[in-house]
Amino acid sequence: MRTFDDVLIKPRYSEVETRDNVSLETELKCQRLGRTIKLRIPICNAAMDTVSSAQLCRTLYELGGLPVLHRNCTPEQQREMLEESGIPDDYPVVLSISVNDYTERVPRFNPGPNIIISIDIAHAHSIKAKRTVEWLVEHYPDHPIMIGSIATKEAVYDTKAWGADIFRVGIGAGSVCTTRIVTGVGVPQLDAVLECAQAAPGSVIADGGIRNSGDAMKALVAGASMVMLGNVLAGTDDTPGTLLEISGNLYKQYRGMASKDVAVSLTARDAQSVYEEGADALVPYKGATRDVLQSFCRGLRSGLSYIGCSSLDGCTQAEFIDITPNVTRENGVHDVLARQQ
To answer: What are the catalytic residues?
Structure first.
């Protein structure tokens, strides 16, 4: 079993003359609806209240990614977030919902035709997720349904049979997720993406464990159509929260959505259902969100050029090479990442 640090992508002959011309256009296939959602870059933001905001969604829209509205707020506040972002009605946006309030949240949000409804639950291969998908299929049959988190092909087959269209893959891989520590449950992220993408080609979003563009490149080669970013975007200008100065350095808050801090902020009913599988953290201030995303995309274009691809088409034909910790040290990855933190 492998995760991102266990492999490198083997370089191939390339006729890409300039990386600037490499396309990052991607598609999310919704087989149930016979629809394809097309985007200019394969990036969406995590549905986290320390990442998702009206301005961040606006920036992601302007760059051609997929904006996600977090659910740690009322339906009216989600609607305000969308309206404040200024995203046109004909552009796809993800509405995050829970398995506890969907019968209230979705009607009150009143989603338009280009809203993707995303069921956000730690373990989506479950009866409560099944009921939620089936209710959405009945009441909102024309809306794409995203579901996560899942990590196995069996979960893809079952959730697809229930009516899900898009699959968010990753259990316990996030930097502020403690599921694997608390429960001992999970699947190494690279193998989870490989397995799920084979079961639902063109419909997988890799969610978790992506710290840099190299990790994202590996997820795309593994078959993901998009990557979901939390930690990468945390601490940038467009994320919620104020800047904190500590010992002369600037920070912003970043927290997992199953953390104790989130539980305190929820209503009494919702807080009782929270099992703590997330952490609270401060991340260094990173500057403009747009600059971070554009740099990330340059890394992806460069990665594609090394494997002879002028677009994401054909990138899954590249090969992974298993490596040892000695290779990681040889590349200086840990030192570089430490300096970036």
So the answer is: 177
The partner residues of 29 in beta bridges, in order of sequence, read 36
Predicted local confidence at residue 180, as pLDDT: 67
Q: Is 299 exposed, middle or buried (0-12, 13-18, 19+ CB in 10 A)?
A: middle
Establish if 54 belongs to a structural domain: yes
CA-CA distance, 89 to 82, in Å (whole number)? 10
Question: CA-to-CA distance for 134 and 323, rounded, in angstroms?
Answer: 43
Domain that holds residue 313: 23-241+289-318
Residue 170, domain CATH: 3.20.20.70
What is the predicted pLDDT for the residue at 67?
Answer: 98
Positive or negative, the Cα torsion across 233, 108, 113, 138? positive
Q: How does DSSP assign 152-197, residue by residue?
A: SHHHHHHHHHHT--EEEE-SS-STTB-HHHHH-----HHHHHHHHH
2 φ/ψ angles, rounded to the nearest 5 degrees: -135, 150
Could you tell me the two tokens for 319? 């090969």
Residue 266 counted as domain residue: no
Residue 160 lies in a domain: yes
pLDDT on residue 287: 97
Q: Mean pLDDT by 10-residue block, N- to C-terminus, for the chain (341 residues)?
A: 94 97 98 97 96 98 98 97 97 98 97 97 97 98 97 98 98 71 86 98 96 98 98 96 91 68 48 57 94 98 98 97 85 52 40
Report in angstroms the alpha-carbon separations of 334 from 118, 138, 280, 326: 34, 49, 23, 11
Closest CA to 168 of 123, 128, 126: 123
> d(Cα 135, Cα 32) in Å, to the nearest integer?
15
Specify if 78 maps to a domain.
yes
- Please give the Cα distance from 278 to 255 (Å, whole number): 7
Q: Check residue 268 and give its pLDDT.
A: 47
> Quick check: bond before 149 cis, omega within 30?
yes
pLDDT value of position 266: 44
Name the domain count of the chain: 1
* Environment class of 282 (CB within 10 Å of its CB; exposed 0-12, middle 13-18, buried 19+): middle
SS3 34: coil
